[in-house]
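quick one
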Amino acid sequence: MLVAAGVVFAGAVGLLVLGWIRRDRPGLPLLGESERLNTGMVLLFGMAVPLVVVSALFVVANVFLIRDTEAPAGDKTEMTVTAVGHQWFWEIRYPSSGAVTANEIHIPVETSVDLVARSADVIHSFWVPELNRKVDMIPGKTNRIELYAEEPGVFRGQCSEFCGLQHANMAFDVVAEPRQDFDAWLAREAEPAQQPEGAEEQRGKREFLASACASCHTIRGTSARGTVGPDLTHLAGRRTLGALTIPNRHGDLSRWIADPQSIKPGNRMPDLNLGGARLRAIVAYLSGLK
Ligand code: CUA
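structure w/ dinuclear copper ion:
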């Protein structure tokens, strides 16, 4: 497509340049004196060529390219991952193991992954430019696309359909890793949350379950089963917070919980007025959820 567009662009610019070179000789038309020839040029390059080029690109895109980028056919699928778009984060599910995470998709390299795209609220668009084209996430509809990474690496994904105030901060990472690293990651993600060990962490767990946190977030293995916000069962193992808004470090997590609206204005997490010892305890507990 780029080559075709480049040729057309070069042709158009070439004709413009030719006209500019001959600007002082109005009596000398481009290819001769014939009015019919000039009209013919306009019809040829103004209508016939664009019609043919655009139709050809349409056929190439819809008959060949779309098919090549679609989800793998049933027998070629080696793994299924479900991504659900929310304002403004990504819920990531691994149906084969029951693992649920957010804003970070791990896949094994050289594996054909069937990515199932859904939405929990408005229209989003799932896009990892280095791995495939975009696929829309439409409420009530299921779309599928293939994710395939040839080499290990971290590939940035981004919502590419305007979905509200924090659309730009709705990003995620795809981490492609060797099979055994992926298997170890998935096995850990599928487990319930670790039990807190120290006194501070245990207090943090009690505070978390007693506060409004638990009505929006799930921590598997506890009574927290909210589904409004991301699953936090293995929060500490993730690279970022707020869908790639800030890194997931101890100080950043504390800053986020203390005042999420100043970091990501408009997001659904309210300021719970947690401070001092309660905040420290909750951060200690969540930091232990590896
Ligand atoms: Cu979600 Cu834009």
